[in-house]
Amino acid sequence: MIDNENSPVLNVNEAMPAYDVRYTYDDYVQWDDDIRRELIDGVPYLMASPSWRHQEIITNLIIQFGNFLEGKPCKVLAAPLDVRLNADTLDNIVVQPDLIIICDLSIRTDAGCKGVPDMVVEILSPSTAHYDKTTKFDVYQKAGVREYWIIDPKEEILAVHILNDGNYITHAYTKKDTVPVHVLEGCVINLNKVFEE
Predict the structure, then answer these.
(1) Using CA atoms, how far apart are residues 99 and 194, in angstroms rounded to an integer?
(2) What are the boundaries of each domain within the chain?
(3) Which fold would CATH assign to domain 52-194?
């Protein structure tokens, strides 16, 4: 989630990062200003607080994923959590997806994860829709996130992007559907329960 204009953080004082400078994770962790942000190709983006509806959907998803994953090696985690997608190279991408599934627990860190999750879920808001569908779509695809879900709470639809030969193949689902989770064999998510209020 970012600000309404999808604009990077502006340099309003010395403590804030500047737009025309590229940053890394080392810079990111030094910004002790209680402002939530993401870092995409070294550019910081502000994150807005989630809505009540957003949090309802995340909670409903965590319940279903958590029930399926009980006793299994994969974990489901929700934001805020730093995900460093290119930590082994430039280390200039830090995202905070709404929800992630990690099966390789060796990428866990105290602050989040240092590597690519198996699955990422983002929930759209008016201020993040374009960002999640374009910028983050490209970032997740390039990083190799195997499954990327984009949930539209207003329309109550889900776009599932499955990585195939480096590109996402998209499937669309509505509230009436049950959705197979490709990275978790045997896991099916009931969208009616996800969108339940």
Answers:
(1) 13
(2) 52-194
(3) tt1808, chain A (3.90.1570)
